[in-house]
Structures are given as C-alpha cells and as structure tokens.
Amino acid sequence: MKKILYTALLSITLTFGLSACSDWFLDKEPQDERTDVVYFKTASQFKEYTAVFYNQLQGWGSSYGGYAAFMDVATDLSGYLNSIHSDVGHGNILVPTTDVRWDNYYKQIRTVNILFEKAENYPGSQEEIKQYLAEAHFFRAYNYFFLLQFFGGVPVVTIPLDVNSPELYGVRNSRYEVVNLILQDLDHAIAGLPKETLISSADKGRISYHGAEAFKARVLLYEATWRKYVGTSTDFKGSGGPVTDQVDDFLDEAIRLCSEIIDDNLYSIWNHNNLSGMKDLSYRYLFCLEDATTNPVGMTKESNKEFIIKSVYDENIKPGNVNLNQTVRKMDASRKLMDMFLCSDGLPVEISNEFQGYATPEAEFLNRDNRMKSIIDMDTQTAAAKELKTGTSGYGNKKFVCDARANLKESPDYPVLRLAEIYLIYAEAVCERNNGQITDEQLNYSINKLRGRAGIANLTNALVDKIKAGTGTTKSKGEVMLDEIRRERTIELYMEGFRFDDLKRWGIAENELNESRLGTVVGSSVYPTTFVDASGNATSKYLRNTYIWGEEQIDTQWGKLNCVVIDGKTNFNFSRSNYLWPLPQQQISLNPSLVQNPGY
Predict the structure, then answer these.
(1) What are the b/e assignments for 281-292, b being 16+ CB within 10 Å?
(2) How far apart are CA 476 and CA 582, in angstroms?
(3) Residue 328: Cβ within 10 Å count
(4) With contact defined as beta carbons under 8 Å apart, do 374 and 283 qualify?
(5) To which H or E segment does residue 553 belong?
(6) pTM of this structure
(7) How do residues 105-128 score in pLDDT, each as one tens digit?
C-alpha cells in the first residue's frame, strides 16, 4: 500500500478489541475479526466498535510518543534534560523524516470517520446509535486538538480515505478551521452523551456529557489565550486568519461550561487529609490510587470522583505494563519549581516570614504547600542522606510513583482530565476575560478548593495586594493576580503534560525556556549550608566537579545565593518558531501542497 498522507490506513477487514463482559474498557487485544459486510447492522455492534476508540486516550500505553513525553520533562520546571523532549526544551528542533504523532493521530481519525460513514446506512433509528456517534465526535475532536497543539493548522479530513483519495494531496487547513471542526465535534458530542450518573457500572470509563464539556472548556481556554498572546505569528505561509477575534466569546463559554460542571456536583476533589493516616498527602496518593493497599487510609479507585476523563487500568486485567516507578523517579524538579511552592500563609518564598531558608535540605520543606512533599521525594531530602555528587538537581520525583506495586505492575488510572483542571480553567478564564479582575467569591468557587487540599491560605485580592507590595513589582494588581492563578495551575498540573503548551499559549516560552536549569541551593561562606561550609569550601556532601556548568546565583530573602547548575543558559535557544513542531519531511515529499511551519 502506497504510503501517502495518512501512513496507517486500515485494511478493509476491521479488527475490534471487543468483549461481552462488563470490563469492555480494559480489553487490550482483538478477540475476533468481522468484516464490514456483516458488521454495523445493530446498535450493539456500533457500541463494540467504539470500544477501540478508548485506546486513543493518553495513558500508560500511549502511542503518541510514550507516557513520559507528557510529563513536562525538559521544561523550565525540570532538571531532567538529557532525553525526552531535550530538543524542544533547548530549542533545537529539527525537521524529522517521520513523526509517530502525525501518523497515529490520522490513523485514529480514520478509524472514527469509518463509524460516521457506516452510520449513514444503519438500518435502524439514528437515535439507537446516538451515543456512539457522539463518542466518535469526541474522539475526532480529541485527536485534532493534539494535532493543533503540535503542528497548528493541518489537513481536515472527515471521511475515511483510501490510497486513491484526492484529499491525500490537499492543502493544510488553517488552525482556525481546525478549531472550528473541533468545537463543532464537541458540540455534537455534548448533545449525544449521557451524564455520568446515567452510565451503567458496566460501562464506567466511557466519555460522559460532562467529559465532553470539560474537554471543550480546555480547548476554548487554550485557543482564546493563544489568539490573545500569540495571534497569527506562528501561522504557516498562506494560511487564512480567523474570521472574527472570538477571544471573549471563547472565554465566556469556557466559564459557562466550567460552572455547569462544578454546579452539578457529580465530581469532587479527592481530599482525605482530615484522616490522620493520610498526613496531608492526598495529592500524593491520588496518582497511585489502585486498591486499599496503595494508600495509608485504605481508599480504592471507587472513591475517586476527581477524574472526569481517565484511561482505565487494572493490575490483573489491563496492567499499565510500563516501568513507571523507576522512570518517573528520575524526573528531577528544577529550582524554579521548588521556589514556586508557596508557604502555608499563601506568600511566595521571597517574602514569607514562614519560609525557613536553604541551610539544610529539610528546611525548605517546612511550612510549605502540601504538594511539595507529595511531588518531591523527601526520603532523599534529609541532611543525613542527601548528597550532591551526581550532577542532578537534588530533587527526586515521586508523583506517579506507586510504591505498593512491583515494576511493570503499576496500574493507576491515568488522569486525562480532572476536576482540578476545571477549577483552574474557570479562574484563568474569568481573570483573562475581566482584565485581571476576579472576586474572592469566584476564587473560593474554584482554585481555593485546590489550595485547601494543599494546606495553604486562600488566594484573595488582599493577598495579591500583599504580594504586590512585598515583592515591589511594577506589575499591575491584575497582572499579579493572573501570575498567581498561573502559579496555581503550574503546580497542580505538574507532570500532566501542560507546561510547554501553557508557556506557548501565554506567549512567554522564549523567556522561560532560555534560562539555566538550576538545582539545590548550596550557599556560600556568608550563607553556609549542608553543602558549603563557612569557609566557602564544599563539604563531604557535595562534589563540585560533577556540576560542569558550575553554580549560579538566585535572589532570596538572604541576598543572592549560589545554586548548582544542571544545564547552562548558553545551551538554550528557544524561539517563537519552536511554538509548533515541523511537519515531517516524508509527508511534504509525498504531498508538495503541504507548507512547512515557519522557521524550519
């Protein structure tokens, strides 16, 4: 078969991963093959076919570059730069021959389009297959949104193609046409999907009405802020612009959708910090929740009402089958992330009287956001055990680490979209829509629920005034408020695949990604620490020669203090052209009508 625009065309025989058991969403392998001559005759056959769509969701078995590619590695929050996404983190993206994301997203889109084609000849009532068509609309939107994030405008295809289809040689659609299709598909999905309460226990895991609403809210915020801060600067040559601005309209709808999800009270933040055994680590155990043995208070997956869309796994039926524990432990955090965690009074470390400084490894964890000790591996952060001898940042990761499971047996559900993100979308959209204005009531309605789990003071307008005055910033109060909302988003969604796209849609990636990646504060003779003594000499805990980029200073309450450098700023060259990935050269060679993205 000739390899043209869509590399992975399906054969005329459709293979289905189906099961009559209640665990339909856990099946991984095809159990039978049925040709479309005898298939698509009953509603149950449409339902069975849609089961294969759920392998398209992000998860531990992601076919879009691997799960680690969605964990914010190589961003400004990470000290893990030598592998995954090192090219984009450093601004050294080259045009690839092929790209698995391009290939697989279009393969999945074709799978979905087949269902629409077969539905046209369905012998029964369209109402019988309404839900399954709605699921198809969701998944087509889901795949096109990732194409949009990676490549910008791409060819829009709404029918299943074969090797002779003229659309294979078509031009790129603009990002605005792609966005229109995504939003239209999500409208169809919302109109045809049931609420969570109407999905049977046998079908739990299927996309719900609120799931489609939540995903649309994500798309709307993304595109509204992209248009506001990036505009047409990354559009390919010859691309049409937006017919209308739509920024305020998108923000208004995002706010409305989030409000509906919140007000229906079908989902809740997984917070069991009130139980003594949890020790304020609800955020930690949410991401490794399997059965009662995987957390100190005996909760099971059934207690998790926070995940609105998830990839479902099971240790026995569908294990994660990735070496999650060992992999994510290596994903060290950077100095920037560490200093982003607020003190319990809600103030940043630069001005909070609660901050205990950096003299010992454990000191900076005191009186801080609970998420800090949930994300950073404190077992290696003690004065007795921690050493700086390997060139790493000194801040090992434990988010997603499942200590109760052996390697390859880690099988928590993957959080594709959770209620926490809805609170964050709401707050950001309100603040953007109102030029930095958001009331204390609106903050309590949304992100202060997350700060409650984190054990830090509520974000209020009075607190923002205090931050503005304490830091001496020249920014307006509205800008400081927006910064604090963005800080909350950054910390809450860390390692869930948002950081690169957030920096881009805010139009600040060039500034944030071209800094040195720093690690532990080692101090100096005027500020001795566990690692440097009062004479300015390295202690037995610190091997300076393992840090080839040396040390760099940061501003603190105690003046400028030295940190180890994991990767020096001279190695970073991120530019506006890196906001989008280049189209794979093979696709351009096969279809000369495709225009490459700017800068490649």
Answers:
(1) bbbbbbbbbbbe
(2) 37
(3) 24
(4) yes
(5) strand 551-556
(6) 0.94
(7) 999 999 999 999 999 999 999 999
